[in-house]
Amino acid sequence: MKTLAQKGFDIGFGAKKNFASYDLINKLPGWTGFISLAVGIIQIAYQNIPFNKELSILLIFVGIAIIYIDVFKNKVDKYNEEGIRLTRLYNSIRDLYNCVKADNQFEYSNYELKYQNIISDFYSNSISKQVFLSQWFAHFKFFYEMQTDWIENELSLSFFKDKLPNSLKITLTIVLLLTLICIFHEYLLNLCGIRK
Question: Which residue ranges does the record assign to the SMODS and SLOG-associating 2TM effector domain (predicted)?
Fold first, then answer.
């Protein structure tokens, strides 16, 4: 049952990662364009906004990221098709899990062929190159949009250890440390009288 839950995680997460890439390709450019336009209008109207230059630089980097995402436009339908295919496999392995769980006289041979067919189909095709940050988005889509209780219970998954991507934890830690360093640095400069 743990093997079925682990493979269910792999298959379901793969489906959501493809859907995340699909969503990022389709939705991010439009939302970014809208937000950039709104921020640009606000910057024109209120020129004395703190961090005005930094905000402009950030928007330029976001624009560069959109150019990067545009490279994936020709694969957008493949991401959607792969997400649908993996979702079907996810549902099949979940159904198999429920059958095994309900079987009081479990015999591996009764389920081996179906399990092997699902796994073989899972490995038969994949899109290895995904859009940047699709893994972060896929964690959200998998744990909060999909019914994963059976996997969470079987594998004893926890919020901090399993539901947050490690790269997100590292990024948030670095941002927090840099923020604390900047605050502490400003505090020391003010304390020593270097800045008024």
Answer: 2-171
State the CB neighbour count (10 A cutoff) for residue 160. 7
Length of the chain: 196
Specify the pTM.
0.77
d(CA 98, CA 28) in angstroms, rounded, equals 37
Question: Residue-wise pLDDT tens for the chain (196 aa)?
Answer: 899 999 999 999 999 999 999 998 888 888 878 888 887 788 777 777 776 777 778 878 877 877 877 888 888 899 999 999 999 999 999 999 999 999 888 888 888 999 999 999 999 988 888 888 888 889 889 998 888 999 999 998 888 787 888 888 888 899 899 888 888 877 777 777 665 4
Output the CA torsion sign for 80, 82, 171, 56.
Answer: negative
Q: Is 193 left (phi over 0), alpha (psi -120 to 50) or beta?
A: left
- Locate tokens 């009081």: which residue? 104
Element (H, E) at 119: helix 108-124
Residues whose CB falls within 8 Å of the CB of residue 90, separated by 6 or more in sequence, listed in order: 8, 11, 12, 15, 146
Q: How many helices (H) and strands (E) does the chain have?
A: 7, 0
Task: Name the token pair of 170.
Answer: 């590292």
